[in-house]
Amino acid sequence: MRSPASSHSRFPMIPDSEPWRNLLPSNLVVAAFRTYATDYKMVTSNTSSGNVSIEKIPIGTEIEGMNILGLVLFALVLGVALKKLGSEGEELIRFFNAFNDATMVLVSWIMWYVPVGIMFLVGSKIVEMKDIVVLVTSLGKYIFASILGHFIHGGIVLPLIYFVFTRKNPFRFLLGLLTPFATAFATCSSSATLPSMIKCIEENNGVDKRISRFILPIGATVNMDGAAIFQCVAAVFIAQLNNVQLNAGQIFTILVTATASSVGAAGVPAGGVLTIAIILEAIGLPTHDLSLILAVDWIVDRTTTVVNVEGDAVGAGILHHLNQKAMKKGEQELSEVKVEALPNSKSEEETSPLVTHQNPAGPASTASELESKESVL
């Protein structure tokens, strides 16, 4: 029996299809408050033989919550459009930059009261938990999973990418960056590590100043691969804490939202935690469990920052190698062109009737010829 509830949806129903539908919201204002989701209705039907069958029917509905995917996609398209406008779009870009700076100032004020708030939030969570050992064990697993993910990405994936592009020992390259890595581990801030990273990558690894001073400041702002890893782990941890089974659509939403939100994460301590709320809103999970993440973030944020700055350094090193390779290739081609042009010019001089051939003996021979002519006269 086909669902009588199919009239509730405007589109042909596809299970776990929320991410695709939320990418293009019909109304941006509504997208700030409501999001599309697939609900299921159990329909009971009786057959002619007297058997009862229960069918699970998907129904498209709108629920409370921000449509993060649609808003992020619109922001990306709007940013490209404003850049295409040139000087006409600069005013709106400056407005959004000023609005973002003002928001960060407000957040910095609020962060002064965060320790007190975390103390009460964690205290309430401990009181609510029937078994505190389970909570501590779950937090320990979350910390271990986050650090393990950072170790795999920073110790295997990034060095492998560097080796593939440069064919050089990546660990020798990373050995010259121990000082900025220690600074990142101690400060938990990509921005605070930037001066040390620029100095070490130029002096110890010989990266061109034009590359390091262009790539590293941008990377400290937008390249937050360590933050993206821990945000995904945190979202899965909160889902398991609330006994929520994540489907394929929700996992895809976590990946896309974590990648997009990590680009806008601030390069300050606990900057990535603020964006986890966006991910939780996108997949419909409660945000009140963020207090547990904040309570142990001082541990996870250290390895997060190290992986962030390592990714910036690897990108600068790869770009420096490719630039050096392109310059050497250009110089080699130029020298080959000069070598080919030299014999051609000689052959043209020998065969051209317009070229005046002089005596190879030079001025001395011409002087002797004049003396002989004078003696004859």
UniProtKB/TrEMBL annotation:
Bilayer-crossing regions: 65-82, 102-122, 142-165, 171-194, 214-239, 251-280
GO cellular component: plasma membrane
Keyword Signal among UniProt keywords: no
Main localization (coarse): membrane
InterPro entries per the UniProt record, alphabetical: DAACS, Na-dicarboxylate_symporter, Na-dicarboxylate_symporter_CS, Na:dicarbo_symporter_sf
Membrane topology: Multi-pass membrane protein
GO biological process, one term: L-glutamate transmembrane transport
Subcellular location: Membrane
Keyword Transport found: yes
GO MF annotation terms: L-alanine transmembrane transporter activity; L-aspartate transmembrane transporter activity; L-serine transmembrane transporter activity; L-threonine transmembrane transporter activity; symporter activity
Pfam families the UniProt entry points to: SDF
Keyword terms: Glycoprotein, Membrane, Symport, Transmembrane, Transmembrane helix, Transport
Residue span of region Disordered: 333-377
Biased composition (Polar residues): 353-369
Similarity comment: Belongs to the dicarboxylate/amino acid:cation symporter (DAACS) (TC 2.A.23) family.
Protein name: Amino acid transporter
Source organism (scientific name): Trichechus manatus latirostris
